[in-house]
Amino acid sequence: MPGPPWQWGSCTGAVMAIYGVAGNWLGRSGGVSYRAGMSVTLDNAEYAALQDRGLRLDLTRGKPSPEQLDLLAFPGGDDYKAADGTDCRNYGGLTGLPELREIFSGFLQVPAVQLVALGNSSLTLMHDVMAHALLFPLPGSSRGWLGDSALVCPVPGYDRHFAVCEKFGIEMIQVPMLSDGPDMDVVEELVAGDPRIKGMWCVPKYSNPTGACYS
Question: Which of 92, 134, 161, 184 is 20–30 Å from 26 (CA)?
Fold first, then answer.
């Protein structure tokens, strides 16, 4: 029995690929397929037809199927889809529900596309960013921060931020927190004279604990 015109196939590094009707791998190049190490041009009509099918790759592990979710009985009707099509009964995407991001967009005065709504506190994100920065180079850098590094810390500030620095052995350099944000004259002087400084803890809106908003 002939197989379907497309099928799943595994590639190096656990990346999934789609195989076309001729066994060619349809890469992300948008018009080039690869077979037996040879490059050929995919017919534009064939490629357009494949795009029109709206195939979607979901590589999420451990995610309940729609059939499993249908076994659950939730109050409030049977419409569980968010604006982007996410089934709210299941695990969400990486950026969070668009409706929730829109709610906070006006409050934070930040476009919704620049916000993420996570399933935990922002401290989880901050901790992971700091850990990554210590071990791996950030954009524009050749190496991670591991070693002699320091961060500017507006005071008074959020004690949990300071705990992250303490945990990773990053020196904390204090600057005064004014009513409209950190004293930038002091910050600029410190950054100009100390190459160890990698950044500054900032909560620009309603800073903890004073509630100050940066100008």
Answer: 92
38-41 vs 171-178, strand pairing mode: unpaired
Antiparallel, parallel or unpaired: β 171-178 and 150-155: parallel
pTM, two decimal places: 0.53
Q: Alpha helix (H) ranges present in 90-207?
A: 98-108, 122-135, 159-168, 184-193
Nearest in space to 88 (alpha carbons), one of 104, 106, 76, 102? 76
Q: What is the Cα–Cα distance from 23 to 19, expressed in whole angstroms?
A: 5
165 contact partners, CB below 8 Å, separation of at least 6 = 130, 151, 153, 171, 172
Q: Cα 196 from chain centroid? A: 27
